[in-house]
Automatic annotation (TrEMBL):
Catalytic activity, EC: 3.2.2.9
GO cellular component, as recorded: cytosol
Top-level EC class: hydrolase
A Pfam family annotated for this UniProt entry: PNP_UDP_1
Top-level division of the source organism's lineage: Bacteria
Chain coiled-coil ranges: none
GO biological process: L-methionine salvage from methylthioadenosine; L-methionine salvage from S-adenosylmethionine; nucleoside catabolic process
Protein name as it appears in the record: adenosylhomocysteine nucleosidase
Keyword tags: Amino-acid biosynthesis, Glycosidase, Hydrolase, Methionine biosynthesis
Pathway: Amino-acid biosynthesis; L-methionine biosynthesis via salvage pathway; S-methyl-5-thio-alpha-D-ribose 1-phosphate from S-methyl-5'-thioadenosine (hydrolase route): step 1/2
Domain Nucleoside phosphorylase: 3-237
Molecular functions per Gene Ontology: adenosylhomocysteine nucleosidase activity; methylthioadenosine nucleosidase activity
Length: 240
């Protein structure tokens, strides 16, 4: 049976989904459990079994969370929801990116002859998202009238343990792997899902342009972008 793990790095990225959760038939309340300092909430959204967690920021926190969802909760699918910095041409704040694939922009073993982003001695460095889940996200987007006027693009997402707020750094990431957006968790969740054969997708709403103007732009859009991403996730879980 389908059981979806939904991961956001920060509370604002998952609060809407937590509020929508209802207990399953047997439990009188939403089941909560803690592993490695992270709380996991298990229940239903629109009758679909869901586990929601705030992973904390960064690749290791996110990978631990994804692995716990797989090992301790037996999730069959993983969705990473949240905000990101826009990199792709034509993307603006409050537009959406759905991952077709995810890479680490900060993986650098070029000194040993590897390409930028290439993970030494691994069969892949580019983790491919599930096509059915991608389609579900696109369909959900098309079905939300409030999102008319915003764009949804699907393509590569790049993750690293770095908040990108400098034009030169942004351009360097463009040269290295040309992603649509940058964030700090998606690829490590994708990596964890890949090695466990679990289908995944990353949904991100743009909070900033990942450049020098970041501070005020980010603060202004953080909550809206996080909630818009969660709203899209709520709609898409019924569609795959
Ligand atoms: N999440 C939201 N905006 C980001 C940025 N500019 N860099 C990394 N992660 C982000």
């Amino acid at each position: 049976m389908k059981k979806i793990g939904i991961i956001g790095a920060m509370e604002v990225e998952i609060s809407l989904l937590k509020d929508l959760m209802t207990p399953n038939e047997k439990a009188k309340r939403i089941n909560a459990a803690k592993y490695c300092g992270t709380e996991y909430f298990e229940g239903l959204i629109d009758e679909i079994p869901i586990v929601v967690a705030k992973s904390g920021v960064g690749k290791v926190n996110a990978a631990l969370c994804a692995l716990t969802m797989i090992y301790k909760f037996g999730v069959t699918h993983i969705i990473n929801t949240g905000i990101a910095g826009a990199v792709g041409k034509g993307l603006d704040v409050l537009d959406f990116v759905v991952s077709t694939q995810a890479v680490y922009h900060d993986m650098d073993a070029t000194g040993f002859g590897y390409k930028p982003t290439e993970i030494p001695q691994m069969q892949t460095s580019c983790f491919i998202a599930d096509k059915t889940m991608i389609r579900a996200a696109q369909k959900a987007f098309d079905g939300i009238p409030e999102l008319k006027g915003h764009k949804l693009m699907s393509g590569r997402i790049a993750s690293g343990d770095q908040f990108i707020s400098d034009k030169q750094v942004k351009n360097r990431i463009r040269e290295i792997c040309n992603p649509l957006c940058v964030e700090m968790e998606g690829a490590s969740i994708a990596h964890t899902a890949f090695v466990n054969d679990i289908p995944f997708v990353i949904i991100r709403c743009m909070s900033d342009m990942a450049d020098d103007g970041h501070e005020s732009v980010y603060s202004f859009n953080e909550t809206n972008a996080a909630k818009m991403s969660a709203a899209l996730v709520q709609k898409m879980i019924k569609l795959f």
